[in-house]
Amino acid sequence: MSVVSIPRRLDTRRPRTATKPATRPDTRRRPSHVAVAPRRRAVTTSWRAASSLRKSSIVVILALALSMAGSMVVANRQVQLHSLQSQLLQAQSTFAEQVGSLTDMSAPSQIATKAGALHLVDPLTVTQVPSTPLDALLPPPKFLGYAPVTSRTLR
Questions:
Q1: Does residue 78 sit within a domain?
Q2: Taking the model in full, what pTM does it have?
Q3: What is the rounded distance in angstroms from the CA atom of residue 21 to the CA atom of residue 81?
Q4: Segment 53-75, tens digit of pLDDT
Q5: 115, 121 contact by CB (below 8 A)
Q6: Domain span at residue 103?
Q7: What DSSP line would sit under 92-145, residue for residue?
Q8: How far is CA 139 from CA 114, 129, 130, in A?
Q9: 134 lies in some domain
């Protein structure tokens, strides 16, 4: 039985070790009359040090605040949409009224009546007027109603 093995590489170099640079001893003297303030204790506690009840209550309060802000934004948008919808309904109503009035003006019966008054179409009935010579004097017209007489010139 033969065993095939891969030869290992031999590293003859020495492993490097991190050497610390030599430090010089502090030769400066500190004055003895300088007062150093005592370290103050941290007033705020860290998140890890807080109790689980406190953490959960903070998370619940933040979730409620975000939920309230989101619902306020949604409610504001719904009010805007209602306002836009009422404006749209008003504009549609005005448009429908205008279309109705213009449709009545362009109805075939209205067009035929106005064209007949302007003699643009053949009349339905023809009335024969007796002929009169052009040099004959016509009688004054007879008025059936009352017309007030007003002066057209100022005196």
A1: yes
A2: 0.37
A3: 73
A4: 888 999 999 999 999 999 999 99
A5: yes
A6: 52-117
A7: HHHHHHHHHHHHHHT-HHHHHHHHHHTT-S--SS--PPPP--TTSPPPPP---S
A8: 31, 16, 15
A9: no
